Amino acid sequence: MERKGNLMTYRPDIQVFDATIRDGGLVNSFFFTDEFVKALYLANIRAGVDYMEMGYLADTDIFKVEDFGDWKFCKEDSLRRIVGDNPTDMKLSVMADVGRTNLQRDLLPKEESVIDMVRVATYINTMPAAIDMIEYASSLGYETTCNIMAISKANTPDIQEALTLLADSPIKAVYIVDSYGALFPEQIQQLTKMYLEYMEPAGKQVGIHAHDNQKMAFANTIEACSMGASLLDATVGSMGRGAGNCGMELLLGFLKNPKYNITPILRFYEEYTLKLKEEGLKWGYDVQYLLTGKMNLHPSSAIAFTKEDRKDYSNFYHQLFDLD
Amino acid sequence: MERKGNLMTYRPDIQVFDATIRDGGLVNSFFFTDEFVKALYLANIRAGVDYMEMGYLADTDIFKVEDFGDWKFCKEDSLRRIVGDNPTDMKLSVMADVGRTNLQRDLLPKEESVIDMVRVATYINTMPAAIDMIEYASSLGYETTCNIMAISKANTPDIQEALTLLADSPIKAVYIVDSYGALFPEQIQQLTKMYLEYMEPAGKQVGIHAHDNQKMAFANTIEACSMGASLLDATVGSMGRGAGNCGMELLLGFLKNPKYNITPILRFYEEYTLKLKEEGLKWGYDVQYLLTGKMNLHPSSAIAFTKEDRKDYSNFYHQLFDLD
After folding, report:
1. DSSP letter (8 states) at residue A280
2. CB-CB neighbours of B319 under 10 Å
3. Is the per-residue pLDDT at A31 higher than 80?
4. Inter-chain contact B216–A218, Cβ cutoff 8 Å?
5. Inter-chain residue contact B218 with A214, CB threshold 8 Å
6. Interface touch A249/B290, C-beta < 8 Å
7. Looking at residues B271-300, what average pLDDT do you find?
8. Sign of CA dihedral B184, B187, B193, B196
């Protein structure tokens, strides 16, 4: 099994994605203050982060505007309130969910927007719709990726079929997304290898978006990285749905490229992220997430367990067998 | 790189060690109630745990008895108060630190003790003293291991010299101990391979004791396991010094041998471990531990940071450079 480098290697192909607002927004319904988003934007620039995901491009016909903060919808004026014209080297991305986005109505031509990249999130069974969205966003001038979610539930031949389609599409990269936090490094190793076999000949990259249900988000991210994945998602303080994601502070502490700098992230964490925890927002590894991850189940029941402040982990475990 | 199995493999050579009282005792100076220790003992038996470490065999000439709970010293009558004659399949171990233990005075002949195994903990530069202790404990009839601590600070030729000595000693196994939580899976992979090259021809095993400074305790444990390490240390709720250890609940959720059962551990966690957290005991991953781990430093400064309830992670990071 050929690796693309070891602990000492500087890999110029690596690009770090901050997904704090987008995945973290699933914790607080995207009600971040402008001060928070602006401070994170500046911290990411200073830290050398390559892309910052500003949120979702959700359809206001499906989601009520009053139920969510601005970052669920990422209107152009919301974005510009924070970044102006974004006169920096850091690119901005938004996520577009298949079936929950109206790209034709909501996505401006690239020259009118500060958005650089549209990441299309799809389950394996909605690939044709994802490809349509990718082609449309691409035709407007955006970079695109395809983020195939819940890959631990997908069948290998279906993944291979999706990868074949994507190799012929205008995407920059395809993402391995472990939505359930169910995967271990040896599985990530095999998946990365398979994704690269389809993507490399087409001149495309592979990315990784991991969840921490079994405390594997960082370990899986560096395993994928060492196998050749180059787009690496992380969030400050691991903020993200349920057990959260790969911590930006862990990832930047690990990467050897001197362009990355952990200090602005530490400062943001102590000044902003900790306040959210003090205000009562809950995310991060806990035993209920281990149990849904281990059983390869959607974390929704573990999130409900957390909200209800339950501590009967052993009962919860046995209730999960009814969901399996 | 040859692996000893994959995710589906049932490995009869694996033995799970519960180190909750011993490593967790470093969090509360070993002041566990008898009820706690007894409940853990019963939970471990029901969970199929192979060894339970009851604490240290510390020298009362060095440590004041009144400053610590009983499990710092593991006197025979303390042990028997919990386990009687231990009429079970689960074996009991104690840890003996080089330079802090008086084996000649404190270790009874095996026939008079419920202890089955003495694990001798040493730094690489005190190997001769460790070998003396191993030979003495062995001569009294005990199983022994050698736990070479802070291996991330040791030089490879020194480790190889130690392994050569240990291959000729009466130990059952030698442990890879990542005291600083500094190591990543690819380093664990190389270390496990090297330890096995020395130990397998001598009919001895390799173990792993990991710390969670960089959220790698579980990932490193299963990496070592898949490379052939067979003695796996874990603690309930990851309770252990600083960032803590590999969680027993994570490890038992992962292992495929049907003899292991996660439910008694979940029940113990919700009934006993959580109470310690509610009472204010602190352990587990946090950013200060990531920083000492990343810099390959002893966690003592991060433990002090935690006790002082400091949150100035970025200052702390830059203070660490003075310790390097």
Report:
1. T
2. 13
3. yes
4. yes
5. yes
6. yes
7. 97
8. negative
Residues of chain B positioned with their CB less than 8 A from the CB of A312: 270
Place of tokens 């994605």: A17
Q: Which of A178, A266, A273 has the highest number of chain B CBs within 10 A, making it the mutation to test binding with B?
A: A266
pLDDT band with cut points at 50, 70 and 90 for residue A2: confident
Those residues with Cβ within 8 angstroms of residue B11's Cβ, 6 or more apart along the chain or in another chain: B4, B5, B225, B230, B256, B257
Burial A204-232 (b: 16+ CB within 10 A, else e): bbbbbbbbbbbbbbbbbbbbbbbbbbbbb
Residue type present at position B217: A
Q: What whole-number percentage of chain B has pLDDT above 70?
A: 99
Q: Would you call A222 and B312 a contact, using CB atoms and an 8 Å cutoff?
A: no
- Give A324's pLDDT tier (boundaries 50, 70, 90): low
Picking from A216, A263, A314, the nearest residue to B266 by CB comes out as A314
- A241-260 mean pLDDT: 96
Does the distance separating the beta carbons of A186 and B291 come in below 8 Å? no
Domains of chain A: 15-278 (3.20.20.70), 287-320 (no CATH)
Global pTM reads 0.96
Chain A residues with a Cβ under 8 Å from any Cβ in chain B: 1, 6-7, 184-187, 212, 214-219, 222-223, 226, 237, 247, 249-250, 253-254, 262-263, 266-267, 269-270, 274, 285, 287, 290-291, 294, 311-314, 317-318
The tokens for B123 are: 């730094």
Closest CA to A124 of A72, A171, A165, A63: A165
Distance CA A296, CA A150 (A): 9
Residues 6+ positions from B280 with CB-CB distance below 8 Å: none
- Collect all residues of chain B within an 8 Å Cβ-Cβ radius of residue A311: 270, 274
Q: What is d(CA B59, CA B55) in angstroms, rounded to the nearest whole number?
A: 13
pLDDT at B11: 87
Three-state SS at B262 = coil
Mark yes or no for CB contact A314/B263 under 8 Å. yes
How far is the C-alpha of A276 from the C-alpha of A253, rounded, in Å? Answer: 23
Give the mean model confidence (pLDDT) for residues A195-211.
98
Give the HSE-up count for residue A35: Cα atoms under 13 Å, Cβ half-sphere: 5
Which residue reads 């997904």 in tokens?
A: A19
β-bridge partners, A51: A17, A91
Amino acid (1-letter code) at residue B322 = D
Q: What is the DSSP string of A169-229?
A: SS-SEEEEE-TTS---HHHHHHHHHHHHHHHGGGT-EEEEE-B-TTS-HHHHHHHHHHHT-
Residue B318: count other Cβ atoms within 10 Å of its Cβ: 12
CB contact under 8 A, B270 and A184: no
Model pLDDT, residue B147: 98
Nearest CB partner across the interface for B266, out of A215, A217, A313: A313
ipTM: 0.95
CB-based contact A218:B215 (threshold 8 Å): yes
Does an H or E element contain B154, and which?
none
Residue B214: its chain A contacts at CB < 8 A?
218, 250, 253-254
Whether B263 sits inside 8 A of A226 (CB atoms) is no
Given a contact cutoff of 8 angstroms between Cβ atoms, the answer to whether B305 and B288 are in contact is yes
Query: Which positions in chain B touch A294 (Cβ < 8 Å)?
Result: 253-254
Token reading at B143: 């199983």
Separation between Cα atoms, residue B72 and residue B56, nearest integer Å: 5
